[in-house]
Each structure stands twice: as structure tokens, then as C-alpha cells.
């Protein structure tokens, strides 16, 4: 099988230091976005997430693969859930970096590496990318409202 990848950048206005919610406060994620209904701690790592996609609730079990606080990077591997019926593997990477367009603003880059089970029947994970964009925007808005 062939590993493929897709990327998307999302500009945020909240400081990178506050955007650590994805890393350190995942239990608060359901308060920040309508797309995530719950997030449970499994075996010492945040991993089981109930989320809404296309109007229906879905359950996903992810494992944090790597965290680099200095480089502001975190990776999650999807272990179980509806995405695993279409993809052999999915690795989501979120990286924060300064936006070249203006002082103080940041860019969240989402990279999704995946391996489709069937290249003819399974599409690229565009809906997953759109989900990540929407969650990022809503979390950004939530963090800005906390100031």
C-alpha cells in the first residue's frame, strides 16, 4: 500500500501558548467546539473522543504519538473508529508556527498521513481535513473569548 498525505493551514488569532488546549487540556475540548462531545483519558494518554461529523456522533480512539513543546508539534495516530474502516493507518500532525503575514498571529498546519484500504473506493480524507479546520477555528474563538 502507498502512504499519502494532505495538508491544510488555518490562521489563528490566539497565542500559541493558549493553544496548548490540544495538548494539555483535552478534557475542555467539548466546551470549545460543537464538533467534539467528549474526550476520555485512556491508559495515561488522552485517547477516546466522541465527535460529530456529517451530523452524526462517532467515536474514535487515538493515541498521542509525539509531543514537542519547543517546536509546538503534536501527533495522534487513529487506532479505532469509523476512519479505520476506510484507512489502514492515519497519522494526524498539528504544528503551530508564526504567520508570515502579521505580528502575533499564528498558523496551525494540519498534516494527515494515511493509507487507503481501497484506492478505487475510498476517497482522500477531505472531510477529516475540513473537520480539523472547523475544530481549530472554534477552539481559537473559544480561547479568544477567555481573555
From TrEMBL:
SMART domains: Bet_v_1. InterPro entries: Bet_v_I/MLP, MLP-like_ligand-binding, START-like_dom_sf. It comes from the Eukaryota. It holds the Pfam family Bet_v_1. GO terms for biological process: defense response. Residues 1-146 form the Bet v I/Major latex protein domain. This is Bet v I/Major latex protein domain-containing protein. It comes from Brassica campestris.
Amino acid at each position: 500500500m502507498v502512504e499519502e498525505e494532505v495538508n491544510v493551514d488555518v490562521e489563528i488569532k490566539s497565542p500559541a501558548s493558549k493553544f496548548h488546549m490540544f495538548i494539555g487540556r483535552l478534557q475542555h475540548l467539548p466546551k470549545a467546539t460543537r464538533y467534539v462531545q467528549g474526550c476520555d483519558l485512556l491508559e495515561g494518554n488522552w485517547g477516546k473522543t466522541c465527535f460529530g461529523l456529517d451530523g452524526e456522533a462517532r467515536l474514535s480512539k487515538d493515541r498521542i504519538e509525539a509531543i514537542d513543546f519547543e517546536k509546538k508539534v503534536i501527533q495522534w495516530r487513529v487506532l479505532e473508529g469509523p476512519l479505520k474502516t476506510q484507512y489502514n493507518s492515519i497519522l494526524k500532525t498539528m504544528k503551530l508556527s508564526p504567520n508570515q503575514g502579521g505580528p502575533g498571529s499564528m498558523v496551525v498546519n494540519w498534516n494527515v498521513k494515511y493509507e487507503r484500504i481501497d484506492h478505487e473506493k475510498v476517497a482522500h480524507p477531505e472531510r477529516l481535513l475540513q473537520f480539523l479546520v472547523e475544530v481549530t477555528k472554534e477552539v481559537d474563538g473559544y480561547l479568544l473569548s477567555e481573555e
